[in-house]
Amino acid sequence: MSEATSRARNRATADDVARVAEVSRVAVSRAFNPHASIKPEKRDRILKVAQELNYTPDVAARSLVTRRSHLVGVIVPDVCSPWESQEIDALTTALQAEGFATLLFKTRTDRSMDSQLLTYMKGYNPDSVIAFTENVGPEILGQILDRAVPIYVSYPHEETIEPIAPGPRFDRLDVIQRDGIDQAIALMQGFGARRFAYLAGDPHASASLEREYVLRQVMAARGLGEPLIVPSDFTYDTAYRATIDLFRIGDGVDAIFAANDVGAFGVLDALRHELGLKVPQDVKVVGFDDIAQSHWKSYDLTTVRIDLDERVRALVRLILRRLKNPDAPALSETIRTKLVVRGTVG
Amino acid sequence: MSEATSRARNRATADDVARVAEVSRVAVSRAFNPHASIKPEKRDRILKVAQELNYTPDVAARSLVTRRSHLVGVIVPDVCSPWESQEIDALTTALQAEGFATLLFKTRTDRSMDSQLLTYMKGYNPDSVIAFTENVGPEILGQILDRAVPIYVSYPHEETIEPIAPGPRFDRLDVIQRDGIDQAIALMQGFGARRFAYLAGDPHASASLEREYVLRQVMAARGLGEPLIVPSDFTYDTAYRATIDLFRIGDGVDAIFAANDVGAFGVLDALRHELGLKVPQDVKVVGFDDIAQSHWKSYDLTTVRIDLDERVRALVRLILRRLKNPDAPALSETIRTKLVVRGTVG
DNA sequence: TTGTACGCGTTATCAT
DNA sequence: ATGATAACGCGTACAA
């Protein structure tokens, strides 16, 4: 009576369930905890009453005592770029299956990680944090967050066993890019390409810088000399204009390796619709990521693939392993790339 | 000493700050609450100590007593489809600016809203819930969530003042689609199109059904007869195949209105790369949404625009108004559409 | 297996 | 303006 009216809304609490089911409040708690010992029939009765009362345990209250928020913070500069949105999609699905919710944070468009944002996020006590942003060191992340061990996606030159560095702890997903890049260059070389350009991504992004580094290594090993570096920023529009500028100067480039697929689309459209060049006859183009749009007929892009499912599975493994053993030394997972051949080389 | 070692990690609490700053714990709380009355110099000292100790108020603990989680649940079937990812991006940015974090949930791919998912989400006590999914009634949403008043995006035929319906409360964002659709048909008609097809979206999506309804109205008003309905599901691949089937049958369609831009891309690619037809000479094409990809040169799509910023601002307004007055009757905001003319009609 | 008592970190209330 | 105390909803050590 009075208890029902005094409550702001019809939110049921564990006490309400206990009262109706005529058990103690602790029993209700145990009914919702699979590991607790409680007589099965008692649990069933409690769960039934809970459903009738539309009761759900309060995650916030629970996390206060269990020190587990079941929240995973995901930090991205742009949710709307295809690669990132596809990764967030897959990640959210996988996390949901494991009982975690995705807490999404956006950095500013200049990709400078705001320490205010981190402070803000810290208040939510995420169990784990995945940083896609390229320009925040794991040191800073680890310093600001306390409970969570951040996961950092890195693109090492070589597959090496890194020494366990002193300082703040963080887990790593290493993406070895060499395989796919080597296959891409080999394919273009095999079809007669000689003068290569690299359409870069954001100059602050380690993904782009490491791609360039590996590209140089691979080309040198194949006796192909230095690639021409074309600055860009992962976006379609910049790639489009950069390509036009490149050919206005008239450099006789016959192969363009783009740091990402969206950039490659800009290259293709500039070549075909602005410069009147044919792909792959006049210029060969390869992208990076293999986003869903890359198989669209207007592009039909040959590209270096990062397997999204594999990548997400590795991230989830890292999260679960870390939560199971919070004090373990730095963890890491490794994935590789491979070339997907379509119509822009040949 | 003992208090420092006993703590699992270096997580500082309000008590720690209070001790170091030599004030009461309540003062620390007030220092972080802008509305609280506290001597400015005292607040400054507390904030300084807090920063030294790397202290941030715990949102979970706070929400327990304030009944505000500062969480907004966003439910989508696919994060990775361009329109939705762009909306989530803008929404997250806007919410972050208002002090809310985005809690992301994915429904299953068959778009059937899982009641288990809702129960799961309820545990987080979101202050508001935005449902993009088309096949969950606000009744169900409102029944399962208790504290939050859900926001439902609807596509009414006409701009009418709906009577305040009895039953569960929910707020609405009404998207009036007529203007843009009428402009699109007028433009195509003006350029000589006579036989129209509607490439539908997901058959369960009210957005698609309402677009079809308005399209029929508009065409009838213009003496254009019935459109040919082509079933699809918002995706590129289905639109591509559906378009090929449509012309294999040989129906002499000279204008296609697609339920969304991605579908229109599939139409364009099928027409040009598979059927050898020219756009806009042989067939005129109009899309819906005006996603970022629509201005890409390969598509250069004429499309009905839903202004994303305007839409997100309306959503945020709804959230803030509802939180300021939890017991207000159903709120609603209205936005309109307009045609963006590019190269696929003319 | 069951229940009592306590603590998680914070804010609201009510004194002063 | 300030501080003591009582919640908020839940999990768990401990005793029974």
Automatic annotation (TrEMBL), chains A, B:
UniProt entry keywords in alphabetical sequence: DNA-binding, Transcription, Transcription regulation
Q: Which CDD domains does this chain map to?
A: HTH_LacI, PBP1_LacI-like
Q: Name one GO molecular function term.
A: DNA-binding transcription factor activity
| Gene3D superfamilies named among the record's database cross-references | 3.40.50.2300, lambda repressor-like DNA-binding domains (1.10.260.40)
- Keyword DNA-binding among record annotations: yes
Span of domain HTH lacI-type: 12-66
| Pfam family for this entry, one | Peripla_BP_3
Q: Which domain of life is it from?
A: Bacteria
Please identify the protein, giving its name as recorded. LacI family transcriptional regulator
